[in-house]
Amino acid sequence: MAYNETLALRIARRLAEFQVDFAEKKMFGGIAFMVNDKMCAGVTKEQMMLRVMDEHYDGLLEENHVHSMQFTGKTMRGFLFIDQEAFETDPALERFINYGLEFGEKGILKSKKK
After folding, report:
1. φ, ψ (nearest 5 deg) of residue 105
2. What is the pTM of this model?
3. Interacting residues of 62 by C-beta distance below 8 A, sequence separation 6+
4. Most exposed residue of 8, 59, 78, 80, measured as fewest CB within 10 angstroms of its CB?
């Protein structure tokens, strides 16, 4: 599945400007940017994917052009889709990336091991 490569480049450039150690990984039919082995942002089709701390999730969902991420019919709490209209300017994109970086730096992932 194709994704907006221009948006992916914008995100990668911002992460590099912040001097963040990140990796790119194909995920969710697009590309994800990983910080500390956790997805913090990504691109699928024309939308930005964003992983946020629980305390920001509900508030961000109230903003225009921000949607819950549905994958295989389930809402993935903590994951958001953001439409292009919300990050047309660099400061707007940077604001969203900062939420993702906070998750990458502080977020705790539950172990999938039983």
Report:
1. -90, -30
2. 0.87
3. none
4. 59
